[in-house]
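Course exercise 7: structure representation. Students receive a sequence record and must write out the corresponding structure in token form. The form below is the worked example handed out in class, using Peroxisomal membrane protein PEX16 (339 residues). Read each field label carefully; the graders check that inputs and outputs are placed in the correct fields and that the protein name is recorded exactly as given.

STUDENT ID: A-19
EXERCISE PROTEIN: Peroxisomal membrane protein PEX16
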Amino acid sequence: MAESNSTLEKFFKSYRDYVSQNPQLTSDIETSVKWISYILAARIDDSSVWSELVYSLSNLLVLFNDRIIAKSRNLASPTITSAETLKTWLTVLEYSEVFIELSCYKVLGKRGKWAIILSTQILKCLARLRLLLAHKENIVESPLIRPLNRNNLGTEQTNRRVEKKDAGFRLKSGKVIRSLSSAADPRNAHFSGPRPVVNGGIPQSSNAVLYEDKALLGEILYILKPIVHLSTLIAVGNKKSWKPYITSFVFDALSIYLIRSSTDPRQLTVNQKVELSQRTISLLMYLLRSPFYDKYTKARLNRLLLSLANSIPLFSTLLRPLAEYIPKWQETYFYMWSN
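STUDENT ANSWER:
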């Protein structure tokens, strides 16, 4: 047993060293794993569970490797807060939820699937509300932990070395003497706490925006939307009904309006701006959600793809399988209980 543990420790150390020293090559491997999931989905019948398993594992691998790289380059926070722990587990759940749903459907049938969906969304809702209200996360991003921007790692390390060099020097007594170049301009002097490192690997200023009134209400509406959608769906009892669809759309649109109309964009971080833009663009996804998709989009989109496949022979090998697989994607991914 001791030998087994020792072997595992050596393997993990070798893996950790390899990932931390070769971030770009690691990214290429992660991308290859994702492509395997796409190939499984496109080439093998009834492979949705397996392709989703591979895709989920690839996302979890990215999350795990990002942690290794961030820690090896001193980009990670030295202390792990309860908010960061909650974000990590919520990110793992978001990466795995589609695979969990499909697996439960295969094993337990429709009732099991819907029980898991409801349980998952309630858990996510409670966790997001805690981040918003207890930990003051403001705009709760999705995914909560964004992938590390590994292209900026070299620049970040150079900047850190320069900052350390310019900061000053230490006497034998242990006292640190600051250099003149590191001294702040007295005309602009102000106190600021330590700058947190965002997931992209670039330090940014702390969140200055504290939600009040309309913006807070908008974020709460966005978090509650999946639960409200599911509740409406259960009350109506018809998956193709317009009531859950319209309710979900109204919650999304109203949430975006309340946040944008009462928040100064200059006070938002880059990630928060990206999150708001993604939420706005995601409104277009309602074109691919039932019942709108079934009544209006499906036939038109299918005709467009087949027309392009017939008129552009080179694209036919790509567009024809795409036209056949879109209904499966629509049923699996374009639902409204998830953010």
